[in-house]
Known about the structure:
636 residues, alpha+beta, Gyrase A, domain 2, eight-stranded antiparallel sheet
Amino acid sequence: MGKQYEQLARDIVEKIGGNENISSYTHCMTRLRFALVDNKIADRESITQLDGVVNVIESGGQFQIVIGTHVEEVYEEIKKFATPPENDNALTGSEQKQSTFNKILDFISGTFGPLIPAIAGAGMIRAVLALLLVFGWISRESQTYYIVNFIADAVFYFLPILLAYSAANKLRCNPVFAMVLAGILLHPNLQELQTAGEDVSVFGIPMAISTYSATVVPILLIVFAQSYIEPLFRRIFPDAVKVIFVPLFTILITGIIGLIVLAPLGSIVGNFLAIGFDFLGAQGSWLVIFIIATFWPILVMFGIHYSLSPLSIGQITTLGYENIIGPGAMLANVAQGIAALVVAARVKSKATKQIATSSGITGLMGITEPALYGVNLPKKYPLIAAMIGGAAGGIYAGVTNVYRYAVGHSGLPAIPLYIGENMWNVINICIAIVITIIVTAVVTYLLSFKYEKDLKTKKLKGSEDIDQNQEEDMIQETLVEEKPRKFFIRSPLTGKAFPLNEVADKAFSTEMLGKGIAIEPEEGKVIAPFDGKVTAFFPTKHAIGLLSEETGLEVLVHVGIDTVNLRGEHFEAHVEQDDKVVAGQTLLTFNIEKIKEAGYQTQTPIVITNSNVFSSITPDASGNVSYNDSLVVIEK
């Protein structure tokens, strides 16, 4: 194992800027998560091209490298080349520049991510136990059931200790101290005080007592307090006595503050969460499942899906069941896997077929990053089909109020997690999966006719005497020989043209939305680059979508970066959606000076949003351009 991933680990550490650029790192189910001193030092493009790396994502303040199911092996090799520096709670480098929202996402994903495998493992043990009950191999009264059940329950009962360790590592305070603080919350003597029902006080200060096993919020608040209290005492005491007095005062003071203030406060927050879960279950569970089933791959793409883990874990520990993530994520993952498998059945390329097959099977098991980044996202249409299929299954699962009884992987092996007293629950999730599979497969198959150009065939000359089966075999092996067609996009603006990868917006610079070019405008006017139709005109007037009915080009002209926030101010529309337009017609005008005064850049990406339809898209301009100058050359 080591030799297989050692070079990959070495290359990753080198290309992210070496050990000195690493503030901290961890991993989740499929990706390495780095907090870097300076994200700009990391050579993202080179890392993406490494054999063994699926993709690179920067989200929530983290530099995330998607590896796949063997991420743990790579992580172990990373340890040989990267040792995060020991320091206090202060954030440095790029972490200081994070927004509050990103810091929260970073903390949540960094804390819960390492625990997901253990929680998933416990959930699958419960699934096995449910199957043993269903087949009558054990009974609820047996000692076997009793023992296996508390084996599975141990992760949840001692969840505060696991969270303490993980949160302390994230906040750069002593994880052993944090685990001791969590142990205080679970100490049987504390439970005895609660059982006695008498008033309790510490140094005359009254203390409310609650049950803290399987809780999330109380220990997170306590470790957060520790991250400030511990460094304070490390600064106060000299090195000679730190080993004695830092543990003494950190555990004692944080423990007392935790018992008197933070833990009860966390319980109150937890109670409100439970009320919220009950409300969702009664009023809007169908909508939650539908949204997750539809948009789960988008959350995965931005690396924030683990940020929902606290809600999932909180619901399962307070109510005994969960439907915030489980059903929707399972349907979304199955859809991703099915879409990739249909692609494998449709494409000619042996390499693509192999990747799509293996990643599709992995997707059905609940790990979708290989299918998402290796097949579905690059081709786009399988991703769209998977989201449609997930939505269809999500509607059924939501309306029938499906939920799972334990947290685990969100793939087909997790179906036993839905087995409980009401057998219709597991029947309904199976029906939802079948709906998802059928809709995803059909939509992917139909879209493949439009987007997989190498599937187009023509009848062979002289084949009239060949029987139908032979003819079909020969056709499948024969690609259409079309003469390449070249055409141009004329410039819709006047200004300075520059490459799309220099645009200050990653959605454009990484070509996620398609290939093209960008212009820094000198005049606030956009004209039609060809005869066609307005397919989209945003209410904020900052972006317009056009279709050339002659060539099939779909073009997006996006004036400025983040100018959607202006809500249409400084923009004026001269056409409406669905209008027919002719080349040279004024589409919209805008005030360059006012937009810049408002703090926004006026860089204007011109993107071919259906780039995958064309064999090549090449920028044909640089520097100064005028209206109607050749901007991009397209070959079909």
